[in-house]
Structure formats: structure tokens, C-alpha cells
Amino acid sequence: MDSQSVASQLFAVSLFPYLGFLYYMTRSKTAPGLTLFGFYFLLAFVGATIPAGIYAKVHYGTSLSNVDWLHGSAESLLTLTNLFIVLGLRGALRKLEDTKESSSEDSEDIKEKGSI
């Protein structure tokens, strides 16, 4: 048993906890939509990386990380995943801040009306 086979087995087994994470995150309905999409989009990265790795091994006789154009293409999907997650969280934080600001303005209006 070599390190490559152990790594591929660990990779395959790690998919099950991640699918569980996605299931419960979707079910909770607390994650921002774009962030949830980003976590699902990670599966596109995984789905593209596996055939790219096989292609690199068959046609170039080396691992995916040694074939720049394939590796860069696959990693661009990971970059998109990260952008979706961060932009979704950023939007949720901004929405939360706007909600807090409007509620504090409302409470100030109530105080002013009460003192008149």
C-alpha cells in the first residue's frame, strides 16, 4: 500500500462527512444563499479534479499538480468556491448591520416621540 492509494481512499471517505455537512446546513436554513451555493460548488471542484487527475496520469504520466494548465483550471473552481462563500457571508453581515442600524434609528425615534 503506497501513499497515493491511502490518499485517494481518505479522499473518498471524506466525501461522506461533507455531504452530511451540506445536508444539515441546507436543512437548517440559516446559511446565506450564496454561501450555501459556494459549499455546494465545492463538489464541482471535486468533480472536475478527479477526471483532470486521471487525464494527467494517463496522458502525461504524472500527477495533476505537475500539469500546470490542468491544475490551474481545477484550482480556479476552488477560487470560485471561496469567492461564493465569502461574498455570501459578507452580504449576510452587511444585512445584519443594516438591520441593527435601522432598529437603533427606530428606537431613537420612539424615544424622541415619547419625550415630546
UniProtKB/TrEMBL annotation:
UniProt region (Disordered), positions on chain: 97-116
Domain of life: Eukaryota
Keyword Nucleotide-binding included in the entry's annotation: no
Regions crossing the membrane: 6-25, 37-56, 76-93
InterPro entries associated with the record: DUF3593
Keywords on record: Membrane, Transmembrane, Transmembrane helix
PANTHER family according to UniProt: 1-ACYL-SN-GLYCEROL-3-PHOSPHATE ACYLTRANSFERASE (PTHR35473:SF3)
Name of the protein this chain belongs to: DUF3593 domain-containing protein
Species this protein is from: Oryza brachyantha (malo sina)
